[in-house]
Amino acid sequence: MFNLKTITFDQIKTSSIALEFDELIPDEIYSWTEADFAKYQVPIGNSRFPITDFFDITVEGEADGADDVKMILNGDLNRVKYIGCKMSGGDIVCNSSVDLHVGAEMSGGSILVKGDAAAHAGREMSGGYLEIEGNTKEFTGASYIGEWRGMTGGQIVVGGNAGKQCGECLTGGRIHVKGDCDILAGIHMTKGIIEIDGNVNRWPGGQMKNGNIVIHGFLGRLLEGFVLDGVVVDPEVDGVTFEGKYIKYTGDIGLNGKGNLYLDAEANKEKLATYGELDDEYTSIREYRNL
Predict the structure, then answer these.
(1) Residues 252 and 188: beta-carbon distance below 8 Å
(2) Cβ-count burial 185-195 (b if 16+ within 10 Å, e if not)
(3) How many C-beta atoms surround the C-beta of residue 271 within 10 A?
(4) Local structure of 269: helix, strand or coil
(5) Distances in Å between the alpha carbon of 283 and those of 87, 248, 261, 268, 288?
(6) CA–CA dist 86, 125 (Å, integer)
């Protein structure tokens, strides 16, 4: 993307109560000047305060729409939430860790977080690209509390570890966790793919009806609603080929689910009697759970 307008936020001071940035997305501010920002008051709790109390804002260039905008946020953003919420275009670069709901409900554009992200990163996003170089807390790419549809499209990349219920209610899109993942990844998912490079604590794919989970590391515990399907070589999952041997399970059979769970056979080879071969002992779900 060729950005014609760069809007830089240089932090002056922090706030003990989180600033809410959901109104400050490329879709809304692509035509703003520095004078417009000087008049804007940012929500903080149940009040509003001038954004210029917290950031020096520099505007360079012109834009015809959201896709022409690049926002750069500098400083300590740990108490800034809703960054990029509902954005449909443009680029946002956060040079810090960020608070809740970064990239929530975004449908396009890209967000790069050069740090960690609090809970609900990429919540219910339908498109675009969200990359978090550090760790994320719970509910990455998930639904909001009380909702049954999480991420439906787009891509999330987590460079570190992800907290519990990553990809909860996933109905599309792709999540790639390059580190470890906590419990219940992909719970209630119906479509899409979750790829985890590291280890998984336990219980991925609980009550999943469809979709794919690929785990390259060690899985601590599997739910009993998954049926051993066999060992597959170089499986193709959603158009992507994963090289090597994988132990494949399907489930969750408690919901007549047809989801697929792939475990790297080398990382989980004690679950096979001999590497690359199945043994009757391990076709029993209950025996597997006791390993």
Answers:
(1) no
(2) bbbbbbbbbbb
(3) 19
(4) helix
(5) 47, 12, 15, 15, 8
(6) 8
Looking at residue 146, its pLDDT comes to: 85
Nearest to 255 by CA among 213, 225, 285: 225
Query: What sections of 178-281 are H helices per DSSP?
Result: none
Listed residue (201, 239, 207) closest to 221, CA to CA: 201
| Calpha distance 69→28 (Å, rounded) | 10
- Residues 102-122: what's their mean pLDDT? 98
**Structural domain boundaries in the chain:** 116-289
Classified as helix, coil or strand, 248 is strand
* pLDDT interval class at 95 (50, 70, 90): very high
As a whole number of angstroms, the distance between CA 39 and CA 124 comes to: 31
For residue 274, what are the contacts with CB-CB under 8 A and spacing of at least 6?
A: none
Give strand ranges (E) for the chain: 5-11, 19-20, 41-44, 47-50, 55-61, 69-74, 80-81, 91-94, 110-113, 129-132, 155-158, 171-177, 191-196, 212-215, 226-233, 236-237, 240-241, 245-251, 259-264
- pLDDT tens-digit series, residues 230-272: 899 999 998 999 999 999 999 999 899 999 999 999 999 876 6
Contact by Cβ (8 Å): 165, 138: yes
Query: Do residues 142 and 167 make contact, with C-beta atoms less than 8 angstroms apart?
Result: yes
